[in-house]
Every structure is written in C-alpha cells, then in structure tokens.
Design brief:
The chain is an alpha/beta fold and 728 residues long. Helix content is 41%, strand content 21%.
Length: 728
Amino acid sequence: MTLSFWRYTHLALALFSSLFLILASATGIILAVDAMQEKTLPYRIEHFDKITLGETLPILKKAYPEITELSVDHNQFVTLQAIDEEGNDVNAYIDAKTGKTLGKPVKKSEFIQWVTGFHRSLFLHETGRFFVGVISFLLVLIAISGFALVLNRQKGIRNFFSKVVKEYFSQYYHVVLGRLALIPILIIALTGTYLSLERFNFFMGKEKKQKEKTEIAAPKGKTVSVFTTTLLSDVKKIEFPFTDDPEEYFIIQLNDREIEVNQVTGAVVTEKRSAMTAQLADLSLNLHTGKTNAIWAFILAIASINILFFIYSGFSITLKRRASRIKNKYKAGESKFILLVGSENGSSLRFANAVLKQLIAHGEKAFITELNSFTVFPKAEHLIVFSSTHGLGDAPSNGNKFISLLKKHIPQQKINYAVVGFGSKSYPDFCGFAFEIDKQLENQHWAERFLDVQTVNDKSASEFVEWVKLWSTKTEIPLSTTPSLYNHVPKGLQKIMVLDKTLVSENEQTFILTLRANLKSRFNSGDLLAVYPANDTRERLYSIGKHTGNIQLVVKLHPHGLGSEFLNSLVPGNVIKAGIINNKAFHFPKKVSQVALISNGTGIAPFLGMIEQNKAKIETHLYAGFRMETETVSGYKKFTTEMIQKQKLQSFHLALSREKEHFYVMDLIKRDADFFIHLLQQGGIIMICGSLAMQKDVEAILDKLCTERKTNSIAHYRENGQLLTDCY
C-alpha cells in the first residue's frame, strides 16, 4: 500500500474520532490515577501471595461464629461478611493471617463514579457503549496506520527505533512518542474493543457451548485437600456453608473456575471451568483499567496523555502542510518559469513558494505545481525542480508518477532545467530522488542542464541560498540571498537584555553589542539572532559570537539602516525581543586537526566566540580583513594575543585595505597558499564569514590554487563539508 493511503487513512480516522478520543483519554487519565491511588491504601498484608486457604479459614472460623462470604478484590484486599461474637454484622477489610479488621470498604466518590460512567458510555447507556466500542476499534486502526507510517519513514522494522530527524517540534515528538506509546495504546484499544463486544454478548453462543463441556464431577478417590493447595491470592470469592453438615459445601470462585468443596475433607465435589471468553474479558478489564498493578496504571495514564498530545501534534502537522498550499497568479500555459515541487510535509514547497513570489515581483510569469502534475508547458523556458526524498531513495507521495509522466508528455521546445534536492544526511539515500530526476531529465532531448544538482541538508536556508546565488547569477534575476527570507519567522520571541555597547565615532562606524539571553536559551557561536526593529515582520539577522556565556554582536552602522540604527540606539539595561535561530551548519568543528577562519568586517563576530570556546585547543588560524586600524581592531588584536597565549588560537593574520601596506584578505591567502592546500588535503576545515563579495573572491583564489597544485576542486571540498560559509 502507498504512503499516501496510510497517511490519509490515519488522518481520516483521527478526524472522525478525535472528539471521542479526547473525552475518553481525559477520563482515562483520571481513572488511571485513581487506580494508582487505590494501591496506597493500607489494607494489603505482607506476603499475601503465600497464604493458603488452609491457613486462613480455621483462624476466621475461630474469630467469627458465622461467616457468609469472603472476597478478594483486584488490590488483594480481603473483605469479610460475617457476624462477630457479640452478634454484630461485620463487613470489613481484614487481616487474613489474624482475622482482625483493618477498615471498612469505602464506595468510590461521586466524582469517580461520574467519570467511570462517562468513560464507559458517555451517559448514553447502550448507545454510548456502542460508540465507545467503535472508537476503541478506530483507535486500533489509527495505531496500525501510524505504525505503518513510522515503518515507511524509518525504512523498515530494523530501523524502527533508530534516530528520527527533527524537522520541527510536532513532527519529531509525534514520531518519537508514537513509537514508545504504540504497544500501550494498542492494548488500550484492543481491550476496549473486546470489552464492548463482550458487553453486547458477541461471544454468547460460544460461551454457552463451552460451559456445557466444562461442567464435570470431581473424582471420588481424591484425597488431597484443596485448602492446602489453593492460595488466597488465586481466590475471587468464597461462599461459606450455612451449617456443619458435610452435605453443605464451600463454593469457591477462582480466577479460571468455580468449585464446590467438601468442608470436612477439602475434596472437590464439582468443578465448573469459566468460559475462555469470560477469562479474556477479565484479562481485558485488568489491562484496560490497570487496577491490578500500579506501574501498569501509570503507563496507561502516560499513554492516555500521549493520545491527547498525538491529537494536538497530528493536527498541527496537518495544518503546517496545508499552510504551504500551492497558489498561482498565472496559468501554466502562459508561464515562462515552471516550478515543480515534490514534498512529503510541505517544507520543499515553502522554499519554492519563496522563489515564486520573487519571480513574480520581478515581472516574470511563473507557475508552481506538484511533480505529479507535470504536463506540456507550451511557453516554458525554465524548469526548476524542488524535491525531497522519501524512504529508500523513493519519491515523495506527490512525485511518484513524475518519471512516467516525463516519458508521456514531450515538450516541443528546448527548456533549461535545474534540480534542488532536499533531505537529511542522517539517511544513507540523501537526496536520492532528486539525483534520479536529474538523471531522467538529462536523457530527455528537449531538456538542457542549467545547473548541476544542488542539495539542501535539514532544510538549511543557508545551503539553499547557495543555489539561489548560482541561479541568480546565471539568469541575472536578482533573487534574495538573505537566509531569513527562506526561514520560518520564529514564534515565541524571548526577552534579551542589553549589557554593554561600544560607542560609534566618525572614524569608527562599527560597534560591539553584548546581550544576555535567558537562562534556558541554548546557543553557540555561528547561530543567528533574529531582530525585529519595527516590531513587524521585517527581520534582521546577525551572527552570534558567544562571549563569556553572553551574546556578542559586531554591527556596522548604516545610514537609515533599519536594524543597525535600532541596535545602535540601545543602552545598557534596555530589553528587546528577539529570536535565536540554530545555524548548526556553521558551528565550530569538534573533530578536525586544523581550522582556518576567514572574515572581513563584522563577519569576525562568530569567530571571536568560536576561538574563546575552543577548549579542545584545535589548531586554529584567523585571517581577518578591515579597512583601517581602529580602536575596535586594536581590541581584536589584544583579544587574539590573549587567545594565542591560552593556545586556543595558533595565529592571527590581519589585512588592512586602506593603510599604507594596502593588504586584502585574498593577498594573505595567496601568501599562505601552501598552508591552505595542505589543510584541505589533510581534512581541515575553512570557515568564511563576511560579505558575499569577499566569499566569491576567496573561493575563486582557493579554486585557482587547487587547480595549480592539481588537487581536487574547491567544489569537491565544499561537498565534503570542508568549506563552511555564512555570508551576506
């Protein structure tokens, strides 16, 4: 069965049953807690499971002249109905070893009785019980379809508990908690279904037939006394004989049968085995309620809480997918740019929509649709494919027909194509379907490759921007290279306090801002601080340097700059609202021999924090370019000298473009060509932060050096994760 079948089945079942499941789960939590609370009552005696009837019955007969009934409940509390020596009626919990009363049975509170009734039938009597049974069965189907979805996602049963890639909160915990709660939820659903079937006498015919077969007479020659071999813990109820007449028998109800026992010899007179359906009903009730075991009751409570969470997270996932719906301004037949999207959860569509809006804003006619909607586009000149990969290199559900459609619909004109693959390097078939699309397009006579396949790991906006730069340069259509445009606007901004800010002067247009985040915030140098200066959707991102546990930004003041003027107006003590965006693709590496940090201007900010955090003392070299020597640059020189002394930094190379020596960062790289080539060949990493112009120049020089030394191209080292960039 296809993934889409399981997904739509899972969603449809959840939609239909969600209200009932919410009510059943909420009341189930209360009842599970009540079952746990019962275990705390002091009416169960020690070593209860070792007491035989032969030990306790003589003691009870001696203590009470007349006994009517003894019962043992699911908590193993012993209740006795009798008349004491003073002629008083006794209905109490007792100590089975001594016969002493421990307390009186207490009825459930009206609230618990109300919750129990509501949980069983919604106060709709038999109709309600029928509905509850149906919902229990639907929960079975929901659990099975969810299990199928996880199997599909994790590529088989062997990887069922392997790592789950975290895309966002709802998706991640829906899968992770779903795996852990699968068995308890299945047990809740199956036992609830069975109890409903048993309530409506679904097994009545089989039960009657079975009872007739199990009524037997006890063997006459049997001499072993039941009283010495039967444990009190196996007993449900004992009805005592009215007199001492040997013809009057004990009627003992055990877990799996009912027996009549001679009160003198202890021999079984008759035996009637319980129907298997009745035993299953008892087992189902115990498993469904958790009343026999406090630990199991606790697990049931957690499972019920998880069901409530699954309803929330499941609908959150659905709404998130629907939020990325396809919307078009132009028709397919009139569009020059065709954007095809293959997406399982909507993330690829989000990136494609951002490109679509920009193309239309530049006056281009563009059309976006799913891969499975591929057809002949008569005026198309550019075909851009954005596709994720599902399972073992398979197509997402809205792209599984694309390859066959590609062979069926043949355009008459030449069309340029470019493919962008989305995936996670945690999976072995990283962007496998995107590469398959590229291969198939390459074999079409009408398709001309515009760019090589570009891949995006874990929906990294920074990596996507690398493709945007290449495509924009070649088409001369200036798409935005700001990662924030392709990121989700963060919600739940946190309050951040200004601790310190350096001054701006005529000669010094750069200032350093130190901020303190709340204690729960986790961030590293290289992450991004999202600031909203006008308190609207306009976002400005700044690279974070982590300094003594605080956020440090290096900002250049631009005239009329929305973000820089806002930050420059702050004074110590001010509190702003901002968001911290994890940028793990630009964190300091932990397991390499050498690292080269290359920056210009404010791009030095994250590197200062990385150097300070270099506790492993990895050999690190900093190359930084500025216009001239200023107080801020002097501060950098002082800081790097201190870090060199602490062996957190190996060397600092400074280029000043408007001083007498007139040096650029590129000149330093040419000078140290042997070092950079050796670093790359030995698996070292180069990190670049600063302006895009600087990044292009540095990459061009490095590529030239690689060609001259006859090593792999810089593109190879980038693909190998040895060239990390965060430029603007």
